[in-house]
From TrEMBL:
GO biological process: rRNA processing
Enzyme class: hydrolase
Keyword Nuclease: no
Family to which the UniProt record says this protein belongs: Belongs to the DEAD box helicase family.
Domain comment (free text): The Q motif is unique to and characteristic of the DEAD box family of RNA helicases and controls ATP binding and hydrolysis.
Protein name, as recorded: ATP-dependent RNA helicase
Keywords carried by this UniProt record: ATP-binding, Helicase, Hydrolase, Nucleotide-binding, Nucleus, Ribosome biogenesis, RNA-binding, rRNA processing
Compositionally biased intervals (Low complexity): 41-50
């Protein structure tokens, strides 16, 4: 056959031939992005993870590279020739086909210089421990022998603390107002309680300890009122009063707080009470409506945690209480004819207690105090509170060790688990830790995420039956992820102000009396005055809304001379400067997150329901962290029902027309844990915008990477519904529905007002496509934040 003269000539060039890659599975948006990335020219070689840590600004997304420090990068499923060998997918690969961004890429760099740890110095002497001088005892301070012996034998308190040494003689001898200021855990409660009980006992006892002819009892009158901001603190003060009054069984104390029956409280007041512990709101109610509450014999009004009461909006209630007690005529003798003058103060004495002296405390002092004496732990600082113009902040105990972990947002969750896992990896006495989180929704989510979902084994027939409390079924559970061979059981607790009062009381009692290692996830409702024994570690997973709250948070450990440790989580960038304004007796040592991950993820992690990945045994700590994060994301993406059920029951004709005239398949239903994570994310962002104005330079909401913050909640992308605008245009309706502002305070209408934060921009991996609109929303959101008044979320 003759040649027809047609010649095909193609210029192939020197580049190697590449086959066309076709992506399958996953979402169509992800496939389009991946296809575009393949068609782009080759990018320069990717930098290493070590070089990436030095990037100061938020870098753009770049592809992961395979290295020895982590698992291979995730890829789409591509079409291959029929004769190509099949490769085995990594054990941690997602089954959904979606892309998961790496934990160790595109993270902002920390500006703090991490120096090598120096040799540990000798531990500091406790600053809030009882005095060691043998001559210093409660009897020498002027207390009766009966009370001093009761403290030494029954309560095992043989020596007072510094604040007690300076306060007790002052309140016994003089009848002037007092302002008690000392660091947390120093014994301020007993400092004002012991003089009050001593002088009330003197109505029934002579100086030699013998009984008088006429003894006071519960119907002899109300002599002291103690106000506290929270119900938990009232319960704790009542417990201390009850322990001290065991040496005087004829005296009675009780509480009137919110969340309990007012009818039963009125009944107790009608029977008679000598010392009343109350929250301001409930006491104001009883003063207005309970006629049997007579304040004519009241000689002491104690305002405990005065700064907190002012923050929570109790100023008007406190004014009402002070005015009603001062307006009532002072009775010189009670109804039984017992003379009160000469033994009890001749005037009404007001005692204000606070660990800090801020402007709101000074304002409360102007309302309540007259010619007050300022009493501190150091005698040289004691002086009459005439001007009150200076503002002082008391530091944490000297024996408290403080660390701050600089951790990127994407690594917050795995770093928290690594810290807890390494903490409970050693065997010893019952170890307890408290984790402070900004809002109640986030507390609920982290509790549900960290608890063990495995069904407990039934007890043996020979074992004694244990009846669980019905109030703690939803707040106490065994923990997963953080257990170890040394401590195979760790009990998880949660506490916030949105719980009912019986649940709050039962949960706090369960945590206090727990004999096993325990963790309490809570809001700021547990930051004031609570004295839980053997709390060795306090973790501020979310920084406090003000420096004063930080001091009270870390004061839950290192109490009464015991050792303790506090850890603060901070994001790289502006938040690192927050440590410069923390006044403390011990410096806050910075620490990089990698040391925490290496120590905590050195071994495999116990997953819920007894699942344990075999592949984690041969992973490095970086790959184990990625596998753990991937596990959380898979838990949140699990649906309650399949997308289509062939065995679905048939629909009757009546229901058939109501459902559109055809049989419908069962649609997928979101995991409740996923809904909880989305709600926790929204509340967390709103709470982040409520830092006090002076500290917003460190906690700038415009600097937050919402996509990375979403990773810390186990989410693939940042949900909408934070403030509106761009969120409504780029997300589905079910993601943009509004959410209530859940606070951890017992009185949310007084302590907080709703704040809204717009959705900040994010990269393509988290679903935001309009960066300009996102930037406008951030600017609009900050305008709203600056115009709104400051408030705290419990």
């Amino acid at each position: 056959m003759a040649d027809d003269g047609m010649l095909l000539n193609f210029e192939l060039g020197d580049a190697p031939l590449t086959s066309q890659v076709k992506f399958k599975g996953g979402r169509w948006r992800d496939r389009v992005r991946a296809q575009k990335s393949v068609n782009k020219p080759a990018a320069p070689a990717a930098v290493t993870a070590a070089d990436d840590l030095h990037n100061s600004s938020r870098p753009t997304k770049r592809p992961r590279t395979d290295d020895d420090d982590g698992p291979p990068a995730r890829q789409f499923k591509t079409a291959k020739p029929l004769n190509a060998p099949a490769d085995k997918a990594p054990s941690h690969a997602m089954k959904t086909g979606q892309i998961s961004s790496g934990l160790f890429t595109s993270n902002p760099a920390a500006v703090t210089s991490f120096e090598k740890p120096t040799e540990e110095e000798e531990p500091a002497q406790p600053s809030n421990a009882p005095l060691s001088d043998e001559a210093e005892n409660f009897l020498a301070l002027g207390l009766s022998r009966r009370v001093a012996q009761h403290l030494a034998t029954k309560l095992e308190m043989k020596a007072p603390t510094a604040i007690q040494k300076n306060t007790i003689p002052q309140l016994i001898k003089d009848d002037c107002d007092a302002f008690l200021q000392a660091e947390t855990g120093s014994g301020k409660t007993l400092a004002y309680l012991l003089p009050i009980i001593h002088r009330i006992m003197a109505l029934s006892l002579n100086e030699d300890g013998t009984s008088k002819d006429i003894q006071v009892h519960r119907n002899s009158g109300l002599f002291a009122i103690i106000l506290a901001p929270t119900r938990e603190l009232c319960k704790q003060i009542a417990l201390v009063v009850e322990k001290v009054l065991r040496c005087t069984p004829w005296l009675v104390s009780t509480t009137v707080i919110g969340g309990e029956s007012k009818k039963s409280e009125k009944s107790r007041i009608r029977k008679g009470v000598n010392i009343l512990i109350a929250t301001p709101g409930r006491l104001t109610d009883h003063l207005d409506n309970t006629k049997v509450l007579d304040v004519g014999t009241v000689r002491w009004l104690v305002l405990d945690e005065g700064d907190r009461m002012m923050e929570m909006g109790f100023e008007e209630d406190i004014r009402t209480i002070i005015n009603k007690t001062r307006e009532a005529p002072l009775q010189k003798q009670n109804r039984e004819g017992v003379r009160l003058d000469g033994i009890l103060p001749s005037r009404r004495v007001t005692v204000l207690c606070s660990a800090t002296m801020r402007m709101d405390v000074q304002k409360l002092g102007e309302i309540s105090l007259k010619d007050a004496v300022h009493i501190t732990a150091s005698k040289s600082e004691m002086e009459n509170d005439d001007s009150g113009a200076t503002e002082a902040a008391f530091s944490a105990p000297a024996q408290l060790k403080q660390n701050c972990i600089i951790v990127p947002a994407k690594l917050r969750l795995v770093t928290l688990i690594a810290l807890l896992k390494s903490t409970f990896a050693r065997k010893g006495p019952a170890f307890k830790a408290i984790i402070f989180i900004s809002c109640a929704d986030s507390v609920d989510y982290h509790y549900a995420l960290l608890k063990d979902t495995a069904v407990p084994e039934p007890p043996s027939p020979d074992a004694a039956p244990v009846k669980p409390s019905p109030h703690t079924e939803a707040t106490v559970a065994p923990a997963a992820y953080i257990t170890s061979p040394a401590n195979p059981t760790v009990v998880l607790h949660k506490l916030h102000g949105s719980l009912t009062q019986p649940v709050r009381t039962a949960t706090l009692n369960a945590f206090t009396n727990c004999k096993e290692p325990a963790v309490l996830i809570t809001t700021d409702i547990s930051s004031r005055g609570l004295d839980v024994p053997t709390v060795d570690l306090v973790i501020e997973y979310d920084p406090a809304f003000a420096v004063a709250d930080h001091v009270h948070r870390i004061g839950r450990t290192a109490r009464a001379g015991r050792a303790g440790r506090a850890v603060l989580f901070l994001l790289p960038g502006p938040e690192e400067g927050y440590t410069s304004i923390l006044s403390s007796a011990t410096p806050v040592a910075p620490q990089l997150y990698d040391s925490v991950l290496q120590k905590g993820l050195a071994t495999a992690v116990h997953l819920p329901e007894g699942k344990l990945e075999d592949e984690t045994e041969k992973h490095t700590w970086t790959s184990r962290a990625e596998a753990l994060q991937l596990h959380f994301e898979q838990r949140l993406l699990a649906f309650a029902y399949s997308e289509y059920d062939e065995n679905a029951p048939k629909i009757s004709k009546k229901d058939k027309y109501a459902k559109g005239g055809k049989k419908e398949a069962i649609k997928p239903k979101d995991n409740p844990l996923l809904d909880s994570a989305r709600q926790a994310f929204r509340s967390h962002i709103r709470a982040y915008a409520t830092h006090v104005r002076d500290e917003r330079g460190f906690f700038d909401i415009t600097q937050l990477h919402l996509g990375h913050i979403a990773k810390s909640f186990g989410l693939r992308e940042a949900p909408g519904g934070i403030g509106g605008g761009v969120a409504k245009r780029t997300h589905r309706p079910q993601d943009t529905k509004g959410s209530t502002n859940a606070t951890g305070n017992s009185r949310p209408d007084r302590s907080a007002r709703s704040a809204h934060a717009g959705k900040a921009g994010d990269d393509d991996d988290f679903g935001v496509v309009d960066e300009t609109a996102a930037r406008r929303m951030r600017e609009k959101m900050m305008g709203v934040m600056n115009a709104a008044s400051e408030f705290n979320l419990g």
